[in-house]
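Hey, can you fold this one?
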Amino acid sequence: VILLLIALLGGGGYMAVTWLIPTMHYRQAEELLGEGRYDEAAAAFTELGDFQGAADRVPQILYEKALWLRDQEKYNEAIDQFEQLGDFAPGSARIGNGLPASVQADETRMMLIRMDVEADLYDAALEKIEELGDYVSSLTPAGTPGYSTEDLRMQAAIGKAHVLTSIGKLEDGA
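Sure. Predicted structure:
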């Protein structure tokens, strides 16, 4: 009888350590994610390791964080986060249109370029276009202004030419 009790208690301890406690931690990690506490949730899932595939969820969480940063107009932070994820793709078109993180980084750069053009910051836009290189947006429909870096380069060049000619620098504007 005593041996049976020891075995049951020992087995219960094993079950608590291998299933019950990790399950509680998993739920806590889910709550952190639900509250938008991405970094804490990612750390909690990482700590859980292979338990119910927790560690496999971390890139998805960080991808969602990058999308959230972009929605909050924290564009440079979003770009950094996307770049850290490399070619990770969410596996679902519902999340970030299913685009790889590297593409999302370039899409975010395009947003910054469009904002510079709209704010008449033509030199800044042209500099960013030079850094990005030739790029065609995956999110902007073809034919829409700002669809490609070539389109934005043209808009920035024309805008800059108008500014220069309006202040009498006709040669520079030409």
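Helices lie at 2-34, 38-48, 58-71, 75-85, 101-118, 122-132, 149-166, 170-173. Let me know if you want another pass with a different chain boundary.
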